[in-house]
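FYI - complex with NAP, inputs then prediction.
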Amino acid sequence: MAESTPESNLQLRSKVTSDGQLELSFQRMAIGEPKPNELIVRVDAAPINPSDLALLLGPADLTQAKIEGDGENRVISVPLSDLHAKMLSPRKDLSICPGLEAAGTVVAAGEDCKDHIGKTVAIFGGSMYAEYRKISVEDCMIFPEGVDPADCASSFVNPLTALCMLDAFHREGHKAIIHTAAASNLGQMLVKLCNEDGIPLINIVRRESQEEVLRVLDAQYILNSESPTFVNDLTKAIRETEATLAFDAIGGGAMASTILQAMESVYAPKEFYIYGSNVHKQVYIYGILKPGPIEVHRTAGMAWSVSGLLMMNYIGRLDAPTAQKMKDRIVGNYDKAFKSRYLDTVALKDMLDVSILNTCNSRSTGKKYLLTPHAAS
Ligand SMILES: NC(=O)c1ccc[n+]([C@@H]2O[C@H](COP(=O)([O-])OP(=O)(O)OC[C@H]3O[C@@H](n4cnc5c(N)ncnc54)[C@H](OP(=O)(O)O)[C@@H]3O)[C@@H](O)[C@H]2O)c1
């Protein structure tokens, strides 16, 4: 394939203005020549993940959106409340191109990696909601010839997080995992991985339709948090599996506490002891699906921990061979355990559409969009 550095690069930008607005717009920029270890990737597909929405829209209320212009000249402005403007003040006047991950085709490369030209790669590192991304060769996974970029666009964020969960499970010596918001794309990956690896997984969802999504995948334990028997069901599953580890994507509210309390009811000593059981119970909060304070009630004894988990920090602490093993597992199973599902695709120039942004922002099961920057509008 002939090398060609694109002359310009259309990007989606999100900015918090000094007069308290969230402003979404497009910007055409030069991309420049790659350094020796850099690739220029034509972005063919990029998922719109919950973490991307936090950067793209933040807490903006889209019912207040003002829309001006069309095509590349479209601008959406949303007034922020005083509280939200204060929260976002570190971002003031900073124009950001969102999109943590993507997949595409290498169209140009620096002298040390020319052999990558023409290959399909998944890439990670932000600024993916664009036509092209210049990126270091270390931040890509190479896929076999013929793989459709749409099928490997979600190869970093959710797959690596699911594999970090399994790594923590093994390192900390647990016997089973509890997972909330379990019908998410990540949750479905975790079901398949736990089935492959023989790890008992207790899935917590909040709707009957989500129970069915997981049943199709042969999930062993599927509990509905809206069921009147939820706490009993959870306690029974913990007793059967001896679970002491949970990953909670909901974050706000009392779910972490409910899980810790159910664990404690299983592990509490028979004789009364004021400090409760000495079995360590671990909840990792890894999402903010429900904003607001995380409640932890004092009903789980003293041997527990609730901590945050961010994939990038976790991967950063791993040795290089362990991280590489995870990436190899993803490349080898991109269309099986790590397959993601999308409601629809959207071209870059069509993305500043309030109805599409609202659907993405619902963060609901099966409502994820795949951005396909070069598709016709
Ligand atoms: N910490 C990290 O490093 C890291 C990395 C990757 C992903 N994540 C997090 O992982 C989560 C899943 O990501 P994804 O891309 O797989 O999501 P997704 O496919 O968009 O699915 C989101 C799921 O969350 C459920 N949900 C939304 N709000 C909820 C609430 N308040 N209570 C309970 N369930 C709720 C939805 O169910 P309904 O249909 O019922 O709304 C849906 O099943 C996200 O929170 C994301 O931020 C974190």
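Residues 15 and 128 are 16 Å apart (CA to CA). Residues 49-51, 157-158, 161, 181, 183-186, 206-207, 249-250, 286-287, 289-290, 309-311, 363-365, 368 surround NAP (CB under 6 Å).
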